[in-house]
Design brief:
alpha+beta; five-stranded mixed sheet; five-stranded antiparallel sheet; 20 strands
Amino acid sequence: MPKKRSGGGLSTTQQAAKFLGVAALSGVVLAGIALPAAGALGLATKGTVEGFDEIPANLKTPPLSQRTTILDSKGGTIATVYSRDRTVVPLKNISPYMQKAIVAIEDARFYEHGAVDLKGILRALNRNVQSGGTAEGASTLTQQYVKNVFVEEAGDDPDKVAQATQQTMGRKVQELKYAIQVEEELGKKKILENYLNITFFGQQAYGVEAASQRYFSKSAKDLTLEESALLAGVVQSPSRYDPVNDTAEATKRRNMVLQRMADVGDISRAQADKAKATPIKLRVKKPKNGCITAVSGAGFFCDYVRHVFLTDPVFGKSKEDRAKIWNRGGLTIRTTLDPQSQQSVQASIKSHVYKSDKVATAVTLVQPGTGKIMGMGQSKPYGFGNNETQYNYSVDKAMGGSNYGFPTGSTFKPFVAAAAIAQGKPATQVYSSPYEMPYPTVQTCDKPYVNLNGERVPNENESERGPYALKEAMAKSVNTYFIQMVEDIGLCPVAKMTDKLGVVQGNGEKLPQSPAIALGSKGLSPLTMASAYAAFANRGTYCTPIAMESVSKADGTTLPVPKTTCSQAMSPTTADTINTLLRGVVDSGTGQEAGLQSRDNAGKTGTTDARKNAWFVGYTPNMSGAVWVGSPSQSVEMERITIGGVYQDKVYGGQVPGPIWRDAMTGALNGVPAPAFNTVDIPDPPKSDERDKDKGKGHGRDRGRPGAGGKKPGDKSPFPGISISPDLIGGNNGDGHRGRTTGGTQGP
């Protein structure tokens, strides 16, 4: 067996002198390393560098790209993602058979020569001249390692990869000089370790550990002689010698490696013969890369984590810096995703909406006070097939979501109520609330908004005629009540409130200041809605959503992660008032089908124009959740439709999204403490059907002008202890078709 030494042959000066002496032979030596002899004779004047000494002295070796593991909050694996599937292991964790096999077939004199094998060069040159082609190369393992470093540095950029692998004189000179440096600095053992971790073994596997797992489902330290010879043989041409697709060719190559191992004395002839007679036995493990492999339907959350990493400046100043870190991988990302909550979300979705349905649902759960995303899922699975999608309906466009979000309908009304209460309006506020009215002129933060097209807004049913107090108007979701409320307080307080609650449109733009927003005319995402409602649960404190708890690198060091930012969006009393109002929605209002039996809960339903969207957004003191149901392309009107195997004559927010929310929240909160809301006392006015039928009729269009049975501005309220506003009707707005949503198509 050849004598092995860990050091590196000749000194730098000796290596350079020998190289330059050989290179003087009209460039033929370099040509013989890897180029056809016939085309190499002219290379002395092409592709050269100006001088050997002018090449930078230090080879920059980037950290090897590895797989990144994304974990849930309990440490369970959600998915592994990588640009190159690689797990770096020390030499001691690589089978001795593997070490011997790769040296025998790629560079049998590895332990005898320095960075350059002059004997190998001359031998290869002679054979290549005789064959008129490239019959044999002469690159040492060290030179091959250097070339792989260039390729690794190039990443997935095809132009840079082409430069890293180009067969020119200049490139060969660079490889040789860097190889000399590497031999002196690392030594043979470390070079071998690095080579086995960097080289490509086919089937998306980089490095011997990934290759061992891919082909044999075992660690590299457990590779047998036959398995080691097979992998060593693959390196020269991973596609040609792929044992998965061409067992016969792979067997020939494996046996060639075994023979070479016997020739150099690494194994006996008997061992080689026995191994050659052994059929290839694979135990292939399919590549599991990317969010498409995520467990428990968490593919969309996984994709959201990726978007956060690639867009948040905490991970790098520029998008190129962040992408480089992500593609390099080797990260362990512990996320906020709660496995119990995620499983409950998926179970609820599966039982209520089928992936083959004409419509889809998206569900997001957020923890009040921390901003942690606890669950995220949708009925159309993450993927590329039929009834699958890569659009995340729970988030904004910038984070992989739909182009605009989805109109929220009446789930927006609590924001209007919060703004009004913050402005000093009492929780007993009464408005005349006619069945139908024109959109009024409303003051914005700038100039008044005027309805130029005469658009009108109706209530859901003609029986919904006021006057109404806030509590009943919220429970019944009376449209004209909230239009009159924004006329009363103006749109600027609403805009300021939604800004504090992080409410932006799905395309990232701020909400327009028009009365129709009071009825949820603009598209928002479920994550936006769940996070905003979480502020009600958290007594007025809004916390920005977060998805990561920690990020650690392969070397054990950590990276900073985005932190939630919490701020007081409204007073605790205002939040407590909203909690009290929204409890009525699930207790006796439109959201009764969503109500939880075992704990305090509150929420709001929403259904948009032509029933293209239905929502339920609700919360307990320790969990907030938003559920959207509709067509991503906004092309389906949810009437006379079957969803999840159940026929629906007309879909309402409390009827389909409500039960989805109820079941998702029930499972997510199973075994979790059930704290109570802080509430306020809101007196109940007489029910609308018990009032005198003449009251509230005949409302005039002019502000302050009483109609038949109406009250003048200075008159007392007909309800003792309750404030009432006069008929606030006037002005126009062209943004809300029949008071529900804007026209036009939304979608991914």
